[in-house]
Amino acid sequence: MGFAYKPIRYDDLNAINAVSPCPGIVSSLPEIAKTLEKSLPKGLILIDGFPTANFPKLINQLKASSKELKIVDITTLQVTPDQIKDRITSYLPNDQEVDPDLIFAKLYDGEYLDFLDEQKVNSLFADLKSNQTVILFGLGSASAVFREKAKAVIFIDVTPKDTALRIFDDKYKSIGELHSDD
Could you tell me the pTM of the whole model? Predict the structure, then answer.
């Protein structure tokens, strides 16, 4: 648990369990963006990922590689931050005697749809054109309401170390918080 509180910025280049890269798998953002641009179908494409996934970096690469993509950040489809806060407050810890760091929340028993503005989602669906590639990205973009209309779903995974470092560096924001384009 200590790693999450004070992550170590160290890569062991001589690890005894080093993973060899698989042939044909690309890992740099420019390579990934170029590969995606060549293979993305027309229609709605969802890019979701593990919390702390660095969506802006990939999206910026995709924007640079193709001017024909329409790109939508899922946060533009959400209800207001105050509405989100009202919906989740009862699930968040608030007793610092029991939980000094306030990290043990309750599992939200609703759906991701609860955080979306229905009018904005319907407007997105109404604007979809069969001859256009539309990328919806961000946490929750692969939720059921979007998957039923999607042509493809892409998931960005993140290593535990990168997750801890991004949180530690304040590069991860919870739902309803303003996001930075890092």
Answer: 0.83
